[in-house]
Design brief:
- The chain is α+β, with helices and mostly antiparallel strands and about 220 residues long.
- The protein has a domain of about 100 residues: Tctex-1 (Ribosomal protein S3 C-terminal domain), CATH 3.30.1140.
- The protein is built from five helices and five strands.
- The strands form two sheets. The protein has a three-stranded antiparallel β-sheet.
- α4 runs antiparallel to α5.
- The longest helix is centred in the middle third of the chain and has 28 residues.
- The radius of gyration is 46 Å and the shape is rod-shaped.
Length: about 220
Amino acid sequence: MSKTELESRMLKLNLAPPVMKPKEARTRPSRNTKLAASKVTGKANGSVKTSRGKTTARKSSQTSVKSDPKTAGPSIFSILITRQLARNYVKRFRQGRQQQMIDRPIPPTYQLEPKARFDPLLVKPLIKKVVDARMRTFRYQQTTAALLSKILATECKDAAKTLDYSRYKLVCQVFIGEKKDQSASISSQCAWDTNFDNVVTYNWQSANVYCIVTMHGIYQQ
């Protein structure tokens, strides 16, 4: 059936002839527009288009480990820094004490007896005050116990020096240990003058830690 016959029949049936739309011109996209479109879709969908036309999805896995500050222990770097700071503190403290002894030499007095004898009843309360203040919040650790014993020995001697025991040499020993169902015995022996020299001992204990401080007062003639 030709076109004219179809139009004549449609006119008889009071139908409008179909309107033929002109064909649209097909435009072929260039290569640059294809690459730009593939980049945009790849970023949006997380995929990469290969040279063969296959798309491969990007796989990105990120694992994050969050450490709880309450349960995480100190790092090795912080432990080393703490040790170095403690050594520097002890070194500067000793140098300062040595410089004080050099600046204040004791002149000879030509006296055979001390003005005030070393009294354990007066020294023990001072030692107790120093040890109780330091050991009240102490938690035993091997590294910190060694440093604390040095600090306690120095502070106990400084406290005893406030009683003005001139020409007395004070020797202080501090023992700090952890209680683990064991027994420990500490003894000392020395040769001294029973008329002027004396010793005092203070024993501090808790549920997990013990601290024993022994101080000798030796008169220098």
